[in-house]
């Protein structure tokens, strides 16, 4: 059963405990980095248990790189094209950057490369992704279009552990919004994105604290009701 709380729940962030140790967080992006920005904003709270340490993009022109630097976070690009078809060679270079920065936990935030089993295994349990659907519904692309085509009444996003299968790993948390009459892909995507920005920091906090996500809450963000929950 979902328990609704009126405001941000202490169980997600444990705001009352200011003496948290922080997991060094690497954030992998490919584009604008709005989820990355939500994580960097969360890190302004000393009670949030992750320390954004490195932002890495596979696309040198990703808008998120400059945004990360404006937060004072080290940001770098490794162009996957340089490695041609050798995906693992690209990933070994990414891995080396992450390890050199002392990264302990990785958040994929719009990182548009499917990772090989080598990388996934190397970071097993420490590799987290956000996906714009209520998994197991709609793995892969065009999630908003598919939710509309199916006539779904609710849609949302999922934060999950990354395993070898694409968008298949164990769910850490989900956030749900209502689909409205007249919604288009764009209007739906915009509301799901608000949900993503609420969900991702909470789930990473739970992972860094090694559990404790048995929380449900409803947040109103810019007039959008976002219902957040974690599997039991
Ligand atoms: C988000 O919708 C995320 O769920 C998906 O890619 C998009 C990235 O957007 N994996 P942003 O770069 O974080 O704004």
Topology diagram in text:
Elements: H1 10-13, E1 23-29, H2 34-42, E2 50-57, H3 63-70, E3 74-77, H4 87-100, E4 105-108, H5 117-122, E5 127-131, H6 143-149, E6 154-161, E7 171-178, H7 185-208, E8 217-221, E9 224-229
Parallel strand pairs: 1-2, 1-4, 2-3, 4-5
Antiparallel strand pairs: 5-6, 6-7, 7-9, 8-9
Helix pairs in contact: 2-7
The structure holds 5-O-phosphono-beta-D-ribofuranosylamine.
- The CATH architecture classification is 3-Layer(aba) Sandwich
Bound molecules: 5-O-phosphono-beta-D-ribofuranosylamine
Shape: globular
CATH topology group: Rossmann fold
Helical segment count: 7
SS elements, strand count: 9
Radius of gyration: 17 Å
CATH superfamily: Formyl transferase, N-terminal domain
Q: What's the number of domains?
A: 1
Describe the model:
By secondary structure, the protein is an alpha/beta fold. It has one domain (10-229): Formyl transferase, N-terminal domain (Rossmann fold). The protein is 31% helix and 24% strand. It has a nine-stranded mixed beta sheet, with helices on both faces. β1, α2 (34-42) and β2 (50-57) form a beta-alpha-beta unit. α2 packs parallel to α7 (185-208). The longest helix has 24 residues, at 185-208. The protein is globular and about 50 Å long. Residues 1-10 have low confidence and may be disordered. The site of 5-O-phosphono-beta-D-ribofuranosylamine has 14 residues, from α2, β5 and α7.
